[in-house]
Amino acid sequence: MVVVMEVGADESQIESVIATLSDHGFDVHRSSGSQRTVLGAVGVQPDFDKRHIELLEGVYTVHRVSEPYKFASRSWKKEPTEAKVGNVVIGGKELAVMAGPCSVESEEQIHASAEAVAKAGARILRGGAFKPRSSPYSFQGLGEDGLKMMRKAADAHGLAVVTELMDPSHADLMARYTDMVQIGARNMQNFPLLRVAGQLGLPVLLKRGLSATIQEWLMSAEYILAEDNPNVVLCERGIRTFETMTRNTLDLSAVPVLKARSHLPVIVDPSHGTGIRNKVIPMARAGVAAGADGLMIEVHPDPDTALSDGPQSLYFSQFEELMTQIRRIAEVIGRKVV
Ligand code: PEP
Ligand code: MN
After folding, report:
1. Is domain 83-332 in CATH 3.20.20.70, yes or no?
2. What CATH number does the domain located at 2-63 have?
3. Per residue in 317-336, pLDDT tens?
4. What is the per-residue DSSP string for 212-244?
5. How far, in Å, is the centroid of ligand 1 from the Cα of 296?
6. Closest C-alpha residue for ligand 1 atom 9
7. Which sequence spans correspond to the domains of the chain?
8. pLDDT tens, 78-128?
9. Which of 142, 166, 189, 207 has most ligand 1 atoms within 8 Å of its beta carbon, as the pocket-test mutant?
10. Ligand 1 pocket check: which of 181, 182, 187 to mutate, most ligand atoms within 8 Å of Cβ?
11. Structure pTM?
12. Rounded-to-integer distance, Cα 40 and Cα 59, Å
């Protein structure tokens, strides 16, 4: 941590800051110029609240130089993590594509979706059985029936399953049907849920919160990793900004930032990221080009009658087209799509 004192801070103020830092267990190195004094505080204190120093008399500014997360960081683990979901690896050379409807609606709908996405080259079937809807009057998902339908459809087409865990009390139920649990954007900072997801032992797809910074997102990943579950995959799904032309703003710069800071695989979800069907393919291409380890795409046999997120869901033919395009982009950057 670096503490910059105000111009004209007097000796007693500087000494009081040094004493406070020492009391908190830091080694302090002092450097005084003609105008200002700068204090370097060395010590591993991931939990330290820098406001303890900011509020002292004579302090101008305080900067942390170390990351508050440990297991999620590149400095802790240099090699990229490869998360295994069923028999699919996320984070290797091959891109992992997860696709399917927003919600599981019926046996026919999920079977048709599984067949189409598998044929086009997706390896993981997505679909919600418990849906986090903004309105309590909207379709909330089919619950366990939806999970059963999804498992059956995935098995019939050699796909793994990813679905959202919304409630800690559903954890055991989830474990019976899914290969990966999704933590939705609205629950990114639901800390008891993160712990439960970590304890389940299944790989976890952690979506970025609607207004979460990258650091907050990595701190949420840390909750899961701290439960001894190394298989965390981050999913950029767009954040809230002042822009209204798209549902969210897909922050693709998060991909290279995460790759530099963390060893965890990163997936891009342009469906929720844009919220508009004809924006999904261009942003999926961009996500792959930015270095994502895979994509999550909403696809529906009849998007116009979908019970949730129809306007951002692709028709089967569009999904096929998307897969053809990303196959070519993947090749250019040394990646592969089956
Ligand atoms: C979803 O994947 O359907 C979903 C609800 O995503 P998010 O949590 O990103 O809104
Ligand atoms: Mn959705």
Report:
1. yes
2. 3.30.70.1140
3. 999 999 999 999 999 999 99
4. --HHHHHHHHHHHHTTT---EEEEE--B--S--
5. 10
6. 185
7. 2-63, 83-332
8. 999 999 999 999 999 999 999 999 999 999 999 999 999 999 999 999 999
9. 207
10. 182
11. 0.94
12. 13
